[in-house]
């Protein structure tokens, strides 16, 4: 008998047949064999981005607003669905077991539907590299935080999947939530909606909070493992995660400070057309 279109999981979440039929063992085998491809994707990304900047140096910028709206809109919808499909599993794990269990036992990889959306989360980190292409073609400022974040997240996520790193449950859900807001914001801006500045501040604040939580989880895992407890995360992975999240925290804090706290010098008697302001802040 064919699988039903939907059924109910143990935490009362509707499950679609494509989620139920996902072969996590096959995907794990693929990732163990090919996770180092993430270095190849990162190298190609660097060549395209910085080669593209050189190519665009003496050329007119492209507008690309419709394409950017579609790109960001797709990632916004994907992230919203990812949040809906993975957040209930995190909440259920904490309620039925404990907070420590949620960061030390990687049961979410075998959960339906969280397991399926965990795999899509990993794959999406390659797709998200395309964000930078719009920055290059539109001749916007490319800051170190942007491309460093893309590369390190991609490599770390692919590497972490091979050992089913337990804290990945938290890292994934937080990322889905923040990206739901961030890409929705980008899509609306590309469609020329006038978004208040405080919305951007909230999103950046959530990104910063994500890094603080990431650092805190790593500290807890160090403590648990150091006191003889069992936690599914190798020390090698834990070191990488700690360095990654700490550098993110420093870079996002610096970005928040320079963008929203430091007062910009006012330029008197220099009129600025609305279209020029739009290009500057797009």
Please name the defining characteristics of this protein.
282 residues, mainly alpha, two-stranded antiparallel sheet, 12 helices, 2 strands, 2% strand
Task: Describe the secondary structure blueprint for this structure.
Layout: E1 6-8, E2 14-16, H1 17-20, H2 24-34, H3 37-56, H4 65-96, H5 99-104, H6 114-127, H7 131-137, H8 144-161, H9 168-190, H10 197-226, H11 235-261, H12 274-281
Antiparallel strand pairs: 1-2
Helix pairs in contact: 3-7, 3-8, 4-6, 4-9, 6-8, 8-11, 9-10, 10-11
Summed over residues and divided by their number, the pLDDT gives a mean of 90
Distance between the termini: 53 Å
Order of helices and strands: EEHHHHHHHHHHHH
- What is the helical fraction, as a range of percent? over 70%
**Strand content of the residues, in percent?**
under 5%
Strand order of the largest sheet: 1-2
Q: C-alpha Rg, in Å?
A: 21 Å
Largest sheet: 2 strands, antiparallel
Low-confidence stretches: 1-8, 267-282
What's the number of extended β-strand segments? Answer: 2
Number of helices: 12
Overall 3D form: globular
Helix and strand composition category: mainly alpha
Would you write up a description of this structure?
The chain has 282 residues and is mainly α. Helices cover 71% and strands 2% of the residues. The chain has 12 helices and 2 strands; from the N terminus they run ββαααααααααααα. The protein starts with 5 loop residues before the first strand and ends with a helix.
Summarize the structure.
With 282 residues, the protein is an all-alpha fold. Helices cover 71% and strands 2% of the residues. The longest helix is centred in the first third of the chain and has 32 residues, at 65-96.
